[in-house]
Structure formats: C-alpha cells, structure tokens
Amino acid sequence: MAHPLQLGLQDASSPIMEELLYFHDHALMIVFLISSLVLYTISLMLTTKLMHTSTMNAQMVETMWTILPAVILTSIALPSLRILYMTDEINNPLLTIKAMGHQWYWSYEYTDYTDLNFDSYMTPTLDLKPGELRLLEVDNRTVLPMETPVRMLISSEDVLHSWAVPSLGLKTDAIPGRLNQTTLSATRPGLFYGQCSEICGSNHSFMPIVLELIPLKHFETWSTLTS
C-alpha cells in the first residue's frame, strides 16, 4: 500500500501492474527527453544572438518536426494498446466473485459456492485494533487464492461506484444494470487495500476494499469453514 511522502506508484503485486509500471517509466522517460530538448532550445534562443539563415526556410527541418512527433506517439501508443488488451483477457478463471456496490459498502458473492456471501463495511475508528488502518480496514475481508486467475464481476445496486485496488492494477466501474468484469492474479500473499474511486455520495470516502491473498490450500480450508 502507499505510504507518506511516496513519490512513485505502489509496488506491483500482479503481472498487469508490473506491465503498467514499465509503461509508466517508458512514457516518463520520453516526456523527460522532450522536456530537456525544449528547455535546451529555449535557453539557446535566449542566450545567443546568432541566426542561421538557412533555418528560415528549410524543408528538412519541417519534415523532421513532423515525422519525429509521429514516431514518438507511436512508441507510446503501441505499448499502451498492448496493455489495454491484456487487461481484458480472461484466461480460464478458477474462481468467480461478484462484487456489488451500495451506498456505502460492498457486498461479495462467491458464485462457485452454494452459500458464501457477505457484506463488507468500513471498520469504525473506535473499533480498530492495533496495526489496522483508519478508513481502510473492513469488518469482512475478501479472501482470495494467490497465483490463481480470479474473475471479478462488478456492478452496483444504486449509483455509480468504482472498484479499485492500485497495487493489483485494478479499476473497474460499478454501473447499475450493467455487469463489468475484470481478472486478477496476485503474485504474492498479503493484504491489498483499495477504495471506491467514483464519487458516489456523501460517504464516498468510506467504502474501502481489502483483499486478503493466501495460498490455495489455505483458501480451500477457509472456504470450507465459512460456507
């Protein structure tokens, strides 16, 4: 999760988030190079009085400043489209979970089990235990198996919400009357925190998401005891 004074993104915990981090660094390097070139050109224009007459009417210069931006945009667009299609792929999920947004809590249903569903409310500040995070902890965590393809079906029963977990690279809108889907596969165990990322009313800030990723054998034991 994020920590105070953090400048970069959260550590990647899924293959998709790793790709997003690489793309972020790639695009940031291009922006840095362009900014350096523009700053260098401006500084030259302000500090020198020399003027080359051949640059006033040069076909080669005009051709270069037309082609070069197109090449740069292509180098950004192709990796972006690749990641966009990767986020939409659903490769034989072993588990399907339906998340429904409400004002202002989430409800989860494990569709592969007969009777395994619960509501997830934010834990009030006065009820927090030592080590738990204010405004991020919930009374019922969503337990999932790690290193396993999981399909999330996301919708809403009232207004627009958004189910987002930054460290897993997930952000999917919850729209009333529409069922959106996304997939996740965590590469390591742990607690992963998220929040509703769509302004949905007065208590929008109090809809946390907590995913608890555990090994598959422990998940099977948990599901048996819970259901």
Automatic annotation (TrEMBL):
GO molecular function: copper ion binding; cytochrome-c oxidase activity; oxidoreductase activity
Any one annotated GO CC term: mitochondrial inner membrane
Record's signal peptide: none
Membrane topology qualifier: Multi-pass membrane protein
Cofactor note: Binds a copper A center.
Catalytic activity line of the entry: 4 Fe(II)-[cytochrome c] + O2 + 8 H(+)(in) = 4 Fe(III)-[cytochrome c] + 2 H2O + 4 H(+)(out)
GO terms of biological process kind: ATP synthesis coupled electron transport
Cofactor(s) annotated in UniProt: Cu cation
Keywords: Copper, Electron transport, Magnesium, Membrane, Metal-binding, Mitochondrion, Mitochondrion inner membrane, Respiratory chain, Translocase, Transmembrane, Transmembrane helix, Transport
Domain Cytochrome oxidase subunit II copper A binding per the UniProt entry, residue ranges: 92-225
Domain Cytochrome oxidase subunit II transmembrane region profile: 1-91
Pfam families, per database record: COX2, COX2_TM
Transmembrane segments: 27-46, 67-85
InterPro entries: CcO_II, CcO_II-like_C, CcO_II_C, Copper_CuA, Cupredoxin, Cyt_c_oxidase_su2, Cyt_c_oxidase_su2_TM_dom, Cyt_c_oxidase_su2_TM_sf
Subcellular location: Mitochondrion inner membrane
Keyword Zinc: no
Function: Component of the cytochrome c oxidase, the last enzyme in the mitochondrial electron transport chain which drives oxidative phosphorylation. The respiratory chain contains 3 multisubunit complexes succinate dehydrogenase (complex II, CII), ubiquinol-cytochrome c oxidoreductase (cytochrome b-c1 complex, complex III, CIII) and cytochrome c oxidase (complex IV, CIV), that cooperate to transfer electrons derived from NADH and succinate to molecular oxygen, creating an electrochemical gradient over the inner membrane that drives transmembrane transport and the ATP synthase.
NCBIfam families: CoxB
Family: Belongs to the cytochrome c oxidase subunit 2 family.
Protein name per the record: Cytochrome c oxidase subunit 2
